[in-house]
Amino acid sequence: MPAPLETCISDLDCASSSSSSSSSDLSGFLTDEEDCARLQLPASASGPPARVRRGAPSTSRTSEVPGAQDEEQERRRRRGRARVRSEALLHSLRRSRRVKANDRERNRMHNLNAALDALRSVLPSFPDDTKLTKIETLRFAYNYIWALAETLRLADQGLPGSGARERLLPPQCVPCLPGPPSPASDVESWGSGAAASPSAAAAASPLSDPSSPAASEDFTYGPGDPFFSFPGLPKDLLHTTPCFIPYH
DNA sequence: TAGGCCATCTGGTCCT
DNA sequence: AGGACCAGATGGCCTA
């Protein structure tokens, strides 16, 4: 498990970090003074470069008259140190942006999961200890909306099957619903237009309608099976769902 | 132990 | 430029 975000952020700037190395897996990232030293970076970004490395070799030379060769070497060393410093800063900047992006992505996924939870909460009752997976939730919701729309359509048409509204939606299910989906646009927007087209839905009964989820390849329904079988939904779970006992 | 599900990280792409 | 979105990779947890 990665370290908490705060840890990562606090470790971001090696210049201000004096803590021991982070346990987080930030490969290649400067996590402590040792890394800074390895890159010949100062322990403090605002302070001077590490003196030891710069000073030690030159002390023996201070007594000498520096030749052109020495000056050239010194220039090269300075350029090298500057390059390393700028690369490290760039790395640190990239790292900082990545950490922020990770944070946003995490929040985004949390929001997505919250929306999925909200969706689960308005779906027909399940045993409390059962939680639909994400894919099950989406598939179930898709089919459930279709079933609701179809129920409304039958009710509005006053067909013999219109009693399905009551059979589909026993009282305990109704309060948890945010409201009936618009039979036309909402249903269409949920799936491929052909599969959920309102005109197609109006053309046939729910059970024989080839455009219904029941007729899709994921949807199994047969004469011997009085239940809607929703893709991804465990059958035993389905049978405990009061909203889907319509064709008993 | 294999497989499913999930959270998280990551780099790429698109949009504002 | 920065944020949103996306898909792939990875590792942890759980269950059959």
The averaged pLDDT comes out at 54
The number of helical elements comes to: 10
Radius of gyration: 33 Å
| Unreliable sequence segments | 1-64, 164-210, 214-248
What portion of the residues fall into strands of 2 or more residues?
under 5%
Which class do the helix and strand fractions yield? mainly alpha
The rough form would be described as rod-shaped
| Quantity of strands, as a count | 0
Q: Strand count, sense and closure of the main sheet?
A: none
How far apart, in Å, are the first and last alpha carbons?
49 Å
Written as H for each helix and E for each strand, in order along the chain, the element string is HHHHHHHHHH
User: Helical proportion?
Assistant: 40-55%
Protein name: Neurogenin-1
Pfam families: HLH
Organism: Saguinus oedipus
Region (Disordered): 1-85, 199-219
